Amino acid sequence: MNRVTRGLPKEHYFDACCVGQSTPVKVVVTQHYVQVWRAIGRGTRCMCNTDKYGFPRGHRQSRRFFFGFMTGDIVVAEVPKGKYKGRWVGRVATRASGWFDIKDAAGKRICQGVSYRYFRLLQRNSGWQYEKKSCGVSSPCLKAGASDAA
């Protein structure tokens, strides 16, 4: 291989450390995690949903906030009883009825039909999803062609 090989997984953030003429012979990685930011948006301008033929099916609500929450807000829910009893953290999907869903970082629904009274806001929807990802590296890497003694 023509670049860094020893001890590093094939990830973009490690490749960026090891390219170009200014790269030192020995690159020491001290971080145990990286922050991954993903743009998820703030909703849509679509005024109505359509079926597979293009005919309108349902219209958008005129307001976005329901009971102080908006779809995409990061919340914690302390559910005292029922099927989803426990503590849930994730993004909220709001409804006008006041019974909300919670989704995890992957977008999978983890908690469904929970009353807004059990929710507490952690962060408003910014249009971004933040996540810490483990690097899985604890040893330094060497540039290809460099000796271990260097």
Characterise this structure.
There is one protein chain. With 150 residues, the chain is mainly beta. The chain folds into two domains: 48 residues, no CATH class; 62 residues, Roll (SH3 type barrels). It is built from one helix and eleven strands. A five-stranded antiparallel beta sheet has the order 8-7-6-5-9, with no helix packed on it. It has a two-stranded antiparallel sheet with strand order 1-11. A two-stranded antiparallel sheet has the order 2-10. The longest helix is centred in the N-terminal third of the chain and has 6 residues. The N terminus and C terminus are likely disordered. This is HNH endonuclease. It comes from Calderihabitans maritimus.
Helix-strand layout with pairing:
Elements lengths: L11 H6 L8 E2 L5 E7 L8 E3 L5 E4 L14 E6 L6 E8 L5 E5 L5 E7 L3 E5 L4 E7 L6 E2 L8
Protein name: HNH endonuclease
Give the gist of this structure.
The chain is mainly β. It has one helix spanning 12-17, and strands at residues 26-27, 33-39, 48-50, 56-59, 74-79, 86-93, 99-103, 109-115, 119-123, 128-134, 141-142.
The CATH topology of the largest domain is given as: SH3 type barrels
Number of strands: 11
Output the structural class: mainly beta
Query: Uncertain regions: pLDDT < 50 for 5+ in a row?
Result: 1-5, 141-150
Order of helices and strands, N to C?
HEEEEEEEEEEE
Rg, Cα atoms, Å: 23 Å
Give the overall shape, derived from the CA principal axes. extended
Q: Helix segment count?
A: 1
- Please give the largest β-sheet: 5 strands, antiparallel
Strand percent estimate: 35-45%
Q: Please tell me the CATH architecture of the largest domain by its name.
A: Roll
End-to-end distance, in Å? 19 Å
Protein name: HNH endonuclease
